[in-house]
Each structure stands twice: as structure tokens, then as C-alpha cells.
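Q: Please design a sequence for this.
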């Protein structure tokens, strides 16, 4: 990417690039896309192809829409190097943040998406996206009359979920959460039907269900990670109990949010202490 950007926009100054990440790799969380987006933003800024948006005294800043589009296009090229034929969803989410709708190759940002608390769990079960996709395609070809309605139902679930998410900021009613939880459950069952489930993910869902929480796989499935929806009023004790039981299964858990902003330039004063230590050691 560095050579390609240099060839198009002029020489990139001599730089040392230090990568620090909280994302586990190979777990279906888009870590490669996050890396590609950050690298593209850094290199394009370094060579002057895009501006440095951070003003004196600011903790963080983001680029213009035009500049984000350029960052995304180069990040997609990086994803192509790593994955061959990516959808472009992961790098788009990493660039713009929030939530996006992907259908038939078209990516559309969702408007007014709320920040949702989730419990992110890594089962630590390795899987191959390529193999999983091939297996799903084989099942569709073998049983088209059965599988295509399941895929149509998954699409309908996505559309219903989009409607709920876009309604939440204007009407932050707790009544939205039971709907999302039911959609999580239905979607997870459908994903098992098409063949991307895994016993570890079933166990994750059972453990969180025992604490009144609802979960589904994320990413390609076949292991990897699952997400658990946390209501705004979910008890911290319930979350800690669920995390304790999940860790007892050998899983790794983080409490986080979805719907956050995309790629952002930070001042050194706004960085976490562990990032500053990594920079100093690098």
C-alpha cells in the first residue's frame, strides 16, 4: 500500500509504523480491515493526499466525507491483498463507523443509529471463512427450495432490525430491546440451519441465556466470536456473572459498544496509557 500511495500521490516521508490493537486477529471482528483503514489514513495524511484534520487543543478529529471516501478506497485495496475478494463491508464500517446495510454489493449507511452495549465473546475456536462460505454455497445448490427461503428470512430479519435501530434514537423506549432480542434468537437459529454454527457458539448462547441475555454469532461463524445484547438497564451483576461463566468455558469476553465513530485522528494526550507505553517502547 505504501508503494502504491507513493506512486500516485508522491513520496511518503520516512516513517516508523507501530500497530497496537485490542482486536483479536482471525476471530471475525474485522481486525485486518481496521488495520488497513488506519494504515491508509496514516499514509495518505503523511504524503499530503488528505489533510491533517486535528487542530491545536483538540483531542480528536475526523476527515471530510471526500477524504473518508479516499481512505476507504485504499483500505479496500489492502483488504483485497489479504482476502482476495472481500465484500468491502469491514473496511467501510472501519472508515465511517456506525452501522451499514449491505445487500447485493451495495453498502448504505444507516442513519441515527444508537450506541448499543454488547458483550463480545471470543470462543477461540479457529475457522476458515473460505471453507464456511463454500459449504453454504454447496448447501444452497443441493437444497435450493429449502435454503433460499431461509436466506430470505435472514434478509427480512436484517430489515426489521434496521427499522428498530433507526427508530431508537428518536424514541429511546425500553420496548425496543425485546424485539432486538427476539431477532437475535431467530437469526442465530437460521445461521445454524445454513451451516455456520458451532457447538462453542451454542454453548455461548446457552450460558448467556441462563442469565436472561440473548446472543448470536458474528463474523463468518464456525467458531470465532459471538455478541450478546445488553439492555440499557441490564444489571452490572448479571453482566459480571455472565462473563465469569463464559470465561469458565475458556472463552474471552469484553464489554463494549457498537455504533461508534469510524477512523479518527487522536492527539497524544487523548490516548490510553497502554497505547502511550507501546509507542514509547516502540
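A: Design:
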Amino acid at each position: 500500500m505504501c508503494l502504491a500511495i507513493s506512486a500516485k500521490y508522491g513520496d511518503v516521508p520516512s516513517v516508523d509504523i507501530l500497530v497496537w490493537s485490542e482486536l483479536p486477529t482471525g476471530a471475525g471482528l474485522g481486525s485486518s480491515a481496521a488495520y488497513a483503514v488506519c494504515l491508509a489514513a496514516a499514509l495518505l495524511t503523511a504524503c499530503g493526499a488528505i489533510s491533517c484534520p486535528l487542530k491545536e487543543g483538540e483531542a480528536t478529529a475526523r476527515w471530510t466525507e471526500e477524504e473518508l471516501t479516499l481512505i476507504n478506497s485504499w483500505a479496500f485495496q489492502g483488504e483485497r491483498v489479504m482476502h482476495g475478494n472481500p465484500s468491502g463491508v469491514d473496511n467501510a464500517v472501519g472508515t465511517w463507523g456506525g452501522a451499514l446495510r449491505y445487500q447485493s454489493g451495495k453498502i448504505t449507511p444507516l442513519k441515527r443509529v444508537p450506541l448499543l452495549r454488547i458483550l463480545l465473546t471470543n470462543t477461540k475456536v479457529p475457522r476458515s471463512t473460505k471453507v464456511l462460505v463454500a459449504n453454504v454455497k454447496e448447501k444452497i445448490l443441493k437444497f435450493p427450495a429449502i435454503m433460499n427461503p431461509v436466506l430470505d428470512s435472514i434478509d427480512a430479519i436484517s430489515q426489521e432490525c434496521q427499522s428498530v435501530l433507526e427508530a431508537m434514537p428518536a424514541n429511546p423506549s425500553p420496548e425496543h430491546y425485546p424485539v432486538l432480542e427476539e431477532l437475535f434468537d431467530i437469526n442465530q437459529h437460521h445461521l445454524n440451519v445454513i451451516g455456520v454454527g458451532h457447538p462453542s457458539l451454542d454453548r455461548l448462547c446457552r450460558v448467556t441465556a441462563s442469565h436472561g441475555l440473548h446472543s448470536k454469532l458474528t463474523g463468518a461463524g464456525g467458531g470465532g466470536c459471538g455478541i450478546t445484547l445488553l439492555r440499557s438497564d441490564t444489571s452490572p451483576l448479571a453482566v459480571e456473572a455472565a462473563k465469569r461463566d463464559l470465561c469458565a468455558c475458556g472463552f474471552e469476553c469484553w464489554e463494549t459498544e457498537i455504533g461508534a465513530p469510524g477512523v479518527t485522528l487522536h492527539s497524544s494526550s487523548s490516548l490510553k496509557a497502554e497505547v502511550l507505553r507501546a509507542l514509547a517502547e516502540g
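Q: Thanks. Anything notable?
A: The mean pLDDT is 90. The radius of gyration is 20 Å.
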